[in-house]
């Protein structure tokens, strides 16, 4: 068996997130079907993390293992060869829906892991202020004024904490809610805002809950002191509502062994 990494991007609008679920179409399901068809053997991918329904990714990694050699079960094994994985991108893409695009496939050590091998991840959250049909399902339309300076002051406070239980979805199967946030800020983009956050790992629903709470800062419903108390409470019910999934993008995943 040989392990490969696959880099892809996807528009998550039509999908119930990355991970395979019963009775729902997911990105992982579509990818595994395409990989299995192309390589003529059952292929099961493992992603760098989960994305929820409607969330997008401009960069996402997964790993999968291939049995290199003749395809099992073929009537004449000597004539059925596994296609070259390093030249597989056009063929895999031809089997995928248009909303999912493979960028590259490359060989890695068999111990390399798409989820546990990542050292950093970054997300963007997109907000626009005026109705725009070309941003439908790709950005959140917010109607109102926001104090962006105050939101950025609050965002900087995140760098001083490690326990983000207050921004985590309840009843998740994680061993710890500790994360190291390295960067968090809003910047103006055209007719809206882009929030960037970078950390070593993220909890389920964490980014959307953070943005929802920072929006309350921008609306002057919360002070910086309130924000600190929310984080220190470690209680999800104290934080703001999660913003819609349509504005969230996984944009960067870093591995020490990937260039």
Report on this model:
This protein is globular. Helix content is 20%, strand content 25%. It has 5 helices and 9 strands. The chain has 259 residues and is of the alpha+beta class. Strands 1, 2, 3, 4, 5, 6, 7, 8 and 9 form a 9-stranded mixed sheet that branches.
Question: What is this structure, in a nutshell?
Answer:
With 259 residues, the protein is an alpha+beta fold. It contains 5 helices and 9 strands; from the N terminus they run βαββαβββαββααβ.
Considering the chains and any ligands shown, give keywords for the structure.
9 strands, alpha+beta, globular
> Any idea what the shape is?
globular
SSE arrangement, N to C: EHEEHEEEHEEHHE
- Our Rg estimate from Cα atoms comes to 20 Å
Mean pLDDT rating: 93
Count of helical stretches: 5
Largest sheet: 9 strands, mixed
Strand content: 25-35%
- Output the structural class: alpha+beta
User: Oligomeric form of this entry?
Assistant: single chain
Extract low-pLDDT stretches.
71-78
Amino- and carboxy-terminal Cα gap? 23 Å
The strand count comes to 9
Blueprint (SSEs and pairs):
Elements: E1 2-10, H1 27-39, E2 46-47, E3 56-66, H2 89-94, E4 100-107, E5 120-128, E6 140-141, H3 148-157, E7 181-189, E8 192-199, H4 206-218, H5 224-233, E9 248-254
Parallel strand pairs: 3-9, 5-6
Antiparallel strand pairs: 1-3, 1-4, 2-3, 5-8, 5-9, 7-8
Helix pairs in contact: 3-4
């Amino acid at each position: 068996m040989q392990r490969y990494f696959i880099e892809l991007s996807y528009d998550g609008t039509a999908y119930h997130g990355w991970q395979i679920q019963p009775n729902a179409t997911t990105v992982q399901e579509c990818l595994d079907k395409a990989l299995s068809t192309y390589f003529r053997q059952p292929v099961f991918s493992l992603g760098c993390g989960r994305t929820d329904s409607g969330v997008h990714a401009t960069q996402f990694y997964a790993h999968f293992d291939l049995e290199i050699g003749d395809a099992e079960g073929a009537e004449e094994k000597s004539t059925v060869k596994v296609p070259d994985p390093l030249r597989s991108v056009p063929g895999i893409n031809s089997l995928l829906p248009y909303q999912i695009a493979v960028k590259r496939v490359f060989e890695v050590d068999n111990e390399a892991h798409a989820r546990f091998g990542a050292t950093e991840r970054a997300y963007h959250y997109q907000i626009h202020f005026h109705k725009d049909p070309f941003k439908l399902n790709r950005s959140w339309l917010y109607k109102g004024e926001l104090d962006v300076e105050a939101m950025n002051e609050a965002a900087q406070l995140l760098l001083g904490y490690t326990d983000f239980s207050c921004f985590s979805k309840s009843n998740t199967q994680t061993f710890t809610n500790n994360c190291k946030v390295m960067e968090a800020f809003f910047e103006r983009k055209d007719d809206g805002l882009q929030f960037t956050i970078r950390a070593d790992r993220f909890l389920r629903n964490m980014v959307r809950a953070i943005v929802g709470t920072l929006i309350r800062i921008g609306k002057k419903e919360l002070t910086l002191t309130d924000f600190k108390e929310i984080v220190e409470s470690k209680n999800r019910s104290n934080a703001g509502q999660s913003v819609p999934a349509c504005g969230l993008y996984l944009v960067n995943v870093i591995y020490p062994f990937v260039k």
